Amino acid sequence: KLAFSQKGIGMETAAYFMLVAAASAVGIWGPQFLQDILKTDLKGIGATLGVVYLLGTIAMAAAGSMADHAGPRERILMSAMALSAIGFFVMASFTANPTISMIGFGLGAIGYLAAFPVFWGSLTPRLNPMAAAAAIALVNSIGNLGGAIGPGILGPVKQNMGLAPAVMGLAIMM
Fold first, then answer.
1. Helix, strand or coil for residue 12?
2. For the chain, counts of helices (H) and of strands (E)
3. How far apart are CA 3 and CA 127, in angstroms?
4. pLDDT at 106
5. What is the pLDDT of residue 3?
6. Gap between the Cα atoms of 85 and 65, Å rounded
7. What pTM does this model have?
8. Which residue of 21, 55, 71, 115 has the lowest C-beta tally within 10 Å?
9. How far is CA 167 from the centre of its chain?
10. What pLDDT digit, counting tens, does each position of 138-149 carry?
């Protein structure tokens, strides 16, 4: 009961749901998206994803550090999620241009990866200490359902409508 009474808990739960949905969808469908864009073999896809996730790891550390030193974490969180949405929008809009599309994919992945470390740091300080554990469990439990729903939605969209609408789904999630 205390978890549901926390101010803004619904918005945080929805944001985490969408963040996890997009991250899981990229994890599952990202290699196929890259195959469609780059028309390369598995080594090329793996190398590309390796570079993107290396940059994403650097962005995670930078975003976490900024959040600890710069003040309002919510602004950093929203900026990371907006960067991700813009990146996936660019990718969806330029699927015929591999260079621009890959820049969009990179920005999209870097943005959602940078959002993860900032998310929990922006949520927990606002929680009532008596309800914090329950509220965190609520947000995490409902949010993690996005890990099943996101890929489950984007897979059929990609198979039935194509790459651009599927990637646009990622932009909408973010």
1. helix
2. 6, 0
3. 9
4. 94
5. 57
6. 22
7. 0.87
8. 71
9. 12
10. 888 999 999 999
